[in-house]
């Protein structure tokens, strides 16, 4: 009971946008959806799970690959979200990234964004300690995205016919939430580290209310755009199915 009451008050800040391993988020507000792609490392989703137009494996997409990294590691409270805008830099949307993030399209080595995430051993390294540095996969994605022109690009389509927790819901949560809702200093006192954690907020309704900004909950991810409609639909499908551990 105490946990439920806590979430009703603290859940307003639930699901702060967080990312670890690159996750392909494909935005299409005109009726398309999302097609996750396996970007390497420990994260990502097998593209064979989805039908539709595949992402080009040789292209890095801002909305799919780069924005989740920035939202999780950079555009957070006290750093480069809209409210904090440290050093005048905001990294929560493409327009902000290009206008304040000192990105030189086609030239990663002269882009301050890339320099900051690779200044290992330097006081200017971003994210700053004690936060962990970006992974080599995440750094490579940012380098390639800038090298390919730093476009506001994405790829599309959505399939809700075969949604599972392990292959669909967890990669979304891991990509957007676990960076803030971890075990060390969980935002709003809420950890989202496993099935039981996610099933709990699915059962009490705070999961979908936070994603939709409904029932008195503040829309999440915080300080960034809402999740693409397809990602919300995928999670809603899992919830409607009884949030199985599958």
Task: Characterize the structure shown.
- By secondary structure, this protein is mainly α.
- Among the domains are: 62-148, no CATH class; 168-241, no CATH class.
- It has helices at residues 2-10, 62-73, 94-100, 112-117, 136-147, 165-176, 195-203, 206-212, 229-240.
- Helix 2 crosses helix 5 (136-147) and helix 6 crosses helix 9 (229-240).
- It is globular.
- The relative contact order is 0.22.
- Mean pLDDT is 77; it is low at 1-53.
Helix content: 25-40%
Net shape: globular
What string, H for helix and E for strand, traces the elements in order? HHHHHHHHH
> Regions with pLDDT < 50 over 5+ consecutive residues?
1-53
**How many beta-strand elements?**
0
Mean pLDDT: 77
Q: How many whole angstroms does the radius of gyration measure?
A: 17 Å
Number of helices: 9
* Helix vs. strand class: mainly alpha
What are the SSEs and their pairings?
Elements: H1 2-10, H2 62-73, H3 94-100, H4 112-117, H5 136-147, H6 165-176, H7 195-203, H8 206-212, H9 229-240
Task: Describe the structure concisely.
The protein has 246 residues and is mainly α. It has nine helices and no strands.
């Amino acid at each position: 009971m105490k946990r439920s009451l806590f979430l009703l008050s603290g859940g307003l800040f639930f699901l702060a946008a967080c990312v670890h391993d690159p996750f392909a988020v494909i935005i299409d507000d005109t009726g398309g959806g999302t097609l996750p792609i396996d970007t390497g490392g420990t994260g990502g989703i097998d593209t064979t799970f989805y039908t539709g137009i595949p992402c080009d494996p040789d292209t890095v997409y801002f909305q799919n690959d780069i924005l989740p990294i920035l939202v999780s590691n950079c555009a957070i409270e006290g750093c480069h979200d809209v409210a904090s805008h440290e050093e005048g830099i905001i990294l929560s949307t493409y327009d902000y990234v290009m206008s304040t993030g000192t990105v030189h399209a086609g030239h990663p080595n002269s882009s301050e964004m890339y320099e900051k995430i690779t200044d290992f051993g330097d006081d200017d390294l971003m994210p700053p300690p004690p936060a962990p540095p970006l992974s080599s996969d995440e750094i490579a994605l940012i380098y390639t995205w800038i090298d390919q022109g730093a476009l506001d690009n994405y790829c599309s389509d959505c399939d809700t016919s075969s949604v599972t927790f392990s292959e669909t819901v967890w990669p979304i949560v891991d990509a957007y939430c676990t960076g803030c809702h971890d075990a060390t200093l969980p935002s709003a006192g809420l950890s989202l580290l496993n099935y039981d954690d996610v099933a709990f907020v699915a059962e009490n309704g705070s999961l979908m209310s936070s994603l939709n900004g409904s029932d008195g909950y503040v829309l999440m991810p915080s300080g960034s755009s809402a999740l693409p409609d397809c990602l919300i639909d995928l999670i809603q499908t899992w919830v409607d199915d009884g949030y199985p551990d599958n």
